[in-house]
What we know:
mainly alpha; two-stranded antiparallel ribbon
Amino acid sequence: MQYPGMSGKVLVLAGLLVFCFLRFAVAGEMVNSRKSGGDKSTGENACTGNFFSCAPDDAKDSSCGILNNSGLSSASPASLGICLKSLQSKLTGSLETKKKAAKELSSIREKAFLGFALTCYGEAPKTGGSSIDRMAIMKVLDNRTQKCKEQMPDKEFTPMDIALQEKQFSMYNSDIYKVPGAFEAALTDKAMSACVDAFKEYSASKKDEWKPEEKEVYHYFATKAPAMPPEWSSKASQVLLSLNGQKTSPSIHTFEANPWDCKPYANN
């Protein structure tokens, strides 16, 4: 038996159910997209401000919970130093053994922090310069990390992985290892303290605080004599990075916005 008007009500109810299902499905996809670091439909990457803007809250070390979003903004240099020391304690043995252990850390945030701190210590000036000269090193690591994610979205990359790619950052090269203390340097070392301070400032930077050309800076080289510009250098691609009213010093490093391909180094 049919009741007058019942078929119309059923259609309306069915329509509402379909609308709700589609709405929740789209919302779920947007959340998943943000968690994975970008909108897959447009290719945009939410991490172009800084790596921590979209990294999952996965810090596992008992001393490193402050690296998660809930604690990073209020983390003190001292607490970051404790986290760094705990992570460094897991890296023992020869240089190659330490590098292997760094690569095998399971927390994305811990690997990123370690990559930023150690590379800053080994590549940035030990004395002099300002925080932007240290943050610029981190920005290059970050830019390369995002480039690798764009080229190989099915693989996971962190600044530590990028730093350890073969023959890319000289401080990690076995044949010209110049910074034997990077894996051990504590916060009492003024150079490491400066890097941890710079990390704190860098992790608070936003996407729109970096100019478009700064997001394409993949290279730098030491400017001071006796260093010579590498063959790939071009004055037309040189960039002064700036943040919070500071600019990189051209007398320390020259930064360049020229192409870089992650693929040749991705499996190193």
